Amino acid sequence: MSQQKNPYQPQKGVIEKIIPETPGIKTFVVRPENGFSFRCGQFAELTVPGIGEGPFAMSSPFFKPELLEFTIQNVGYMTSRLHQMKEGDVVGVRGPYGNGFPLEEFYGREVLLLIGGVGFPPARALLYSLLKEKHKYPRILMCYGARTPEEIVYKYQIEDFRKKIELHLTVDKADKNWTETEGVVTVLLDKVRVNLKNSVAVVIGPPVMMKFGTLKLLDVGYKPEDIYLSMERKMYCGIGQCRHCLIDHYFICKDGPVFTYEQLKDFPDIWE
Ligand SMILES: Cc1cc2nc3c(=O)[nH]c(=O)nc-3n(C[C@H](O)[C@H](O)[C@H](O)COP(=O)(O)OP(=O)(O)OC[C@H]3O[C@@H](n4cnc5c(N)ncnc54)[C@H](O)[C@@H]3O)c2cc1C
After folding, report:
1. Which of 8, 96, 194, 238 has the most Cβ atoms closer than 10 angstroms to its Cβ?
2. Residue 2 above 60 pLDDT?
3. Residue from 79, 245, 258 to probe ligand 1 pocket by mutation (most atoms less than 8 Å from CB)
4. How far is the CA of 234 from the centre of ligand 1 (A)?
């Protein structure tokens, strides 16, 4: 009798490093035992042994598959246990899953990233890919918003990114040292001028930010087919079996998580 491979079987990954990002967010640098190639925008299911698993975007470059980075917010049962883990501990990793960003569609076009909070992890993987072939994109811009200066992730890379792309930052609530914009991330769209005829936008962040970000991009003049969304839903299997992540006929885990707004715009409640 032929032995079928169990699709839920993760491989082992050693946590090589843990980088504290904000009071509630840490980056876990994980070395998967058997390697792991992926494209930006895809995700993995990470297992905390004996506790459970959850989907997380790779935030590291696709060209460093031997060392994956996941930037994870402590929001509940599994993520709080993950946040208690130490360097040297072992997690499970299965994947990669999902479609990733269709970079071929972006070639020759301005790319505007509109990113909120913990939407930065998949956006960082995308940025690494864009920068790897920077000559293919006439302009790369990123508007990033966090609630407070303290909640900005990858602070140690901001200046470096700023040398390579046009980067605008905002926080909902500034402190006395903040010298940049104050307000929700959509206010940054009033500051940037884009060539609408030749521009695509990518929106990643919490649902409310994605909703108002998308509406503002439409207002500015982007066409629904030029707005790319990385969608999040409560998700278990990651492989199109459990049906928890369905939006109408689309599985977020298999057909997404990256969709154009054109694909989703007619479905109710996509921002939940
Ligand atoms: C494709 C994909 C990529 C993701 N990438 C990242 C990432 O890079 N970094 C990161 O921090 N998180 C990411 N998430 C969200 C992450 O999977 C959940 O926050 C995590 O699984 C919650 O597990 P928990 O057991 O700690 O929370 P639970 O105890 O199950 O829930 C705590 C709270 O979080 C909510 N929640 C749980 N899962 C989700 C979800 N998938 N979407 C929205 N709300 C949820 C619950 O409704 C509840 O309010 C991603 C989700 C998806 C679908």
Report:
1. 238
2. no
3. 79
4. 7
Q: What is the DSSP string of 197-256?
A: GGEEEEEESSHHHHHHHHHHHHHHT--GGGEEEE-----SSSSSSS-TTEETTEETTTT-
Nearest CA to ligand 1 atom 10: 72
Greater model confidence, 271 or 223: 223
Cα separation of 42 and 58, whole Å? 7
Single pTM value for the model: 0.94
Span from the CA of 60 to the centroid of ligand 1 (angstroms): 19
What backbone phi and psi angles, to 5 degrees, belong to 25? -135, 135
Exposure b/e, 11-24, CB count within 10 A at least 16 = b: eebebeebeebbeb
What is the identity of the amino acid at 138?
A: P
pLDDT of residue 234: 78
Residue at 226: amino acid letter: D
Query: Tokens 């992730």 label which residue?
Result: 153
Q: What is the pLDDT at residue 7?
A: 84
CA of 191 to the centre of ligand 1 (A): 32
The string of DSSP codes covering 68-127 is EEEEEE--SHHHHHHHH--TT-EEEEEEEES----HHHHTTSEEEEEEEGGGHHHHHHHH
Which residue CA neighbors atom 41 of ligand 1 most closely? Answer: 234
- The number of the ligand 1 atom at minimal distance from the alpha carbon of 56 is 5
Coil, helix or strand for 59?
coil
Residues with a CB atom less than 6 Å from ligand 1 = 43, 54-57, 71-73, 75-79, 118, 121, 232-235, 257
- Show the tokens assigned to 51: 């506790």
